[in-house]
Amino acid sequence: MKTGKQIVLIGAGNLATQLGLALHKAGFDIIQVYSRTEVSAKTLAQHIGATFTTNLTEITPTADLYIYALKDDVLEEVINTVPITNGLHVHTSGSIKMSLFSKKQKNFGVFYPFQTFSKTKLVDFSEVPFLITANSDESIENLKVIANELSHRIFVVNDEDRSFVHLSGVFACNFTNYLYTIAEQLLAERNLPFDILMPLITETVNKLKTLSPTEAQTGPAQRGDQLVITKQIQLLAQNPEWQKVYQLLTENIEPTKPIN
Hints:
alpha/beta, 46% helix, 13% strand
């Protein structure tokens, strides 16, 4: 890697793949990829010029940095199984405390890229915020050196702050995308394409560059237009679960309507 050190990537899923590709492109030396699935491990390793393994006991013991890019529900098990105690060990979770490493590792932390990832869609990391946490100033500086080669948006935060950033992302990204799926299905039932919404979605996002979300809020709930709200609830009669979503969001948006 650019600092003359070596990285092992533990994981080969969506985040691991995009992070691995970005690190490799930036000139870092990723020497090994681990995944419990051979196809995933081998595929990523081939793209970044690394070896691969599906056995945690075969992970290279002499690397300088071990990045655990794994699902939260397997993170503790993997950390406890990896037999290596030297080097700096970090996970990439938004909600798991760094203390998960504390019983086993001397140097540890969190290297969290705040973005949504898919294996097949390349990500421009230059605008991706990196949230860094570590148990020593030296480890923080080491992580900042790496993050600065990928992005110009670096934040040193504690575990609690990172958890709230992650929570905000669930509202802003995951829940919003679920609402897109509802919209997509509503349109599909009328034989209309989802991309009819793209100008609206784009403009909604663009407004947030100059307005706060509260200031940018529009729609029948914000206006208090009960006639439209009632009609739209009736249109969802065949989808009671979507009715509940509509009603809950409407009830929570209504208090934000401006006073005329």
